[in-house]
Amino acid sequence: MGGVSRITQHEGDGTGPPWVGRWDLVLEVAGVGKSFGDVQAVKGISFQVPAGKILGLVGPNGAGKTTTMRMILNIIGPDRGRVLWQGRPVTLGVSRTFGYLPEERGLYPRMTVREELRFFAQLHGVADGRQLDREIERWIDRVALTEHASKRVDELSKGNAQKVQFLVSLLHRPPLLVLDEPFAGLDPVNVRILKDVVRELAAGGTTVVFSSHRMDHVEELCDLVCLIDRGELRLEGTVDEVRQSTGEHLLRLEVPGHEEQVFSLFPELQVTHRGTYWEARIPRDFPTRRVLEEALRLGEVRRFEVAPPSLEDIYVHTVGRVD
């Protein structure tokens, strides 16, 4: 893969991933495990995140993602293993500098938007005054909340309230931002606004960990991906490494009225009809040029694409079940 190390499949042994040495690490999760009674929620997970990079933490409901994030934030402690920030254990004082958007949103409903942001910024140690006021106004404008800034939180739509919660998590300029399903319930316009903010924060040096069930969001935003299933880390790597990990590619073909005839010449392929085009899973060394030549012979080729599986394909292939 042109010098990029291959995908790693961890078993919680604490060994480093392939990008160690390429980027400066700040967050290290080393063999952490957590049980609640007889339930083993997290089973010896290890991963690292460099400074200014975005990690997507994905997996089915109940896989252990939220428990892992709460251990990173020092909300709960691991039964075994450890979480390090810049090479040192995450203490209460360190964790208070982090930003967190929980899946269970929690705002004070009778405060106005400005009051809410000022209150939480001060809780994080930001001094009250003109500088904070300017920061609040800048962020309110950045996420298109200006016309709602004087409203109470309980007067906001669900999407606008979520944007307030998002700002609460970042207004104190955290070095680590942990986001649990940050785009859930947002319309496409607001999703784009928040995605752009996350990119800007990462470009400025903030390390980001976020979970999502939307693989397209993860694929678009993230530098790194960790897939957790039943409390275990199943896949880990850069987005490209994870997409390349199966050793297969997808061939998509649209030759109106002739796709079935083309693929009949290649009976070894498993083919799926995808509306306007047909798709086949192929091994990496498959002679795709032969498919294109046959398609051109039979009709107008409107689509011919060969690409590794998407993160959604990888997710389904790895987890293999419905939540």
Q: Which SSEs are present, and which pair or pack?
A:
Blueprint lengths: L24 E12 L2 E12 L3 E5 L6 H8 L7 E6 L2 E2 L2 H4 L3 E3 L11 H11 L6 H13 L15 H13 L5 E5 L7 H16 L3 E5 L3 H7 L2 E6 L2 E7 H6 L3 E7 L4 H6 L5 E5 L2 E7 L4 H11 L4 E5 L3 H9 L4
Describe this structure in words.
- With 323 residues, this protein is α/β, with parallel strands linked by helices.
- 32% of the residues lie in helices and 27% in strands.
- It has 11 helices and 14 strands.
- The chain has helices spanning 65-72, 92-95, 113-123, 130-142, 158-170, 188-203, 215-221, 239-244, 259-264, 288-298, 311-319; strands at residues 25-36, 39-50, 54-58, 80-85, 88-89, 99-101, 176-180, 207-211, 224-229, 232-238, 248-254, 270-274, 277-283, 303-307.
- It has a 6-stranded mixed sheet with strand order 6-7-8-3-9-10, with helices on both faces.
- A hairpin with a 2-residue loop joins strand 4 and strand 5 (88-89).
- Helix 3 crosses helix 4 (130-142).
- The protein is globular.
- Residues 1-22 have low confidence and may be disordered.
Structural class: alpha/beta
* Number of distinct helices: 11
* Fraction in helix: 25-40%
Whole-number mean pLDDT:
88
Rg, Cα atoms, Å: 23 Å
* Beta-strand residue percentage: 25-35%
Distance between the termini: 33 Å
Low-pLDDT stretches are 1-22
User: In one word, what is the shape?
Assistant: globular
Main sheet characteristics:
6 strands, mixed
Give the strand order, joined by hyphens, for the main sheet: 6-7-8-3-9-10
Number of strands: 14
